[in-house]
UniProtKB/TrEMBL annotation:
UniProt family annotation: Belongs to the Fur family.
The organism of origin for this protein: Gemmobacter lanyuensis
Protein's name according to its UniProt entry: Ferric uptake regulation protein
Superkingdom of origin organism: Bacteria
One cellular component term from this protein's GO annotations in UniProt: cytoplasm
Single Gene Ontology BP annotation: negative regulation of DNA-templated transcription
One MF term in the entry's GO annotations: transcription cis-regulatory region binding
C-alpha cells in the first residue's frame, strides 16, 4: 500500500469514528489535520490558509463549520484562549497546553508535570465536563 492510500484510509477511519460522511471537503481538511498521524493545534484561519495550497478549495465558513462538526463528533476538542480565540486540537485525552503569547501558538504541555490537588464542587444539578489548563508563556 502506498503512502497516499495509507493517508486516505487513516482519514476515512478517523471520520468514520465520528460517524461523519467522508465528503470531499471533509476529506481534504481531515487530511491536513490527521493525514500524517500527528496531532495538530489549528485555528480556523490557519487551517484555511493550509487548505489554500490543496486541490480541494474550501471557504473559511466551510472550515469553521467543518471544525465544529469534527468537535461535535468527538474527533477534536476546542481550546478557547482569551475568551475569543479558538484553537482546535486533534489530541483528545485530557492534557494541558502552553500558549505562546509572542507567536499566538498553542502547544501541548507535559501532563505528567501538572498536579491538580482539588477541584471545587460543581453546583447542584451539574457535573464537571472538563478542565482546560492553558499556561501562558512569554519570552524574557
Amino acid at each position: 500500500m502506498d503512502v497516499q492510500e495509507q493517508v486516505r484510509l487513516r482519514v476515512a477511519d478517523w471520520l468514520a469514528r465520528g460517524g461523519l460522511r467522508p465528503t470531499r471537503q471533509r476529506m481534504a481538511l481531515a487530511t491536513l489535520l490527521v493525514g500524517d498521524g500527528e496531532h495538530r493545534h489549528v485555528t480556523a484561519e490557519s487551517l484555511y490558509a493550509l487548505s489554500a495550497n490543496g486541490t480541494e478549495k474550501v471557504s473559511l465558513a466551510t472550515v469553521y463549520n467543518t471544525l465544529r462538526a469534527f468537535c461535535e463528533a468527538g474527533l477534536m476538542q476546542e481550546v478557547v484562549v482569551d475568551g475569543a480565540k479558538s484553537y482546535f486540537d486533534t489530541r483528545m485525552d485530557d492534557h494541558p497546553h502552553f500558549y505562546w503569547e509572542d507567536t499566538a501558538v498553542l502547544t501541548d504541555a507535559p501532563a505528567e508535570e501538572l498536579k491538580i490537588a482539588h477541584l471545587p464542587t460543581a453546583p447542584d444539578g451539574t457535573e464537571i465536563a472538563r478542565v482546560d489548563v492553558v499556561i501562558r508563556l512569554r519570552r524574557r
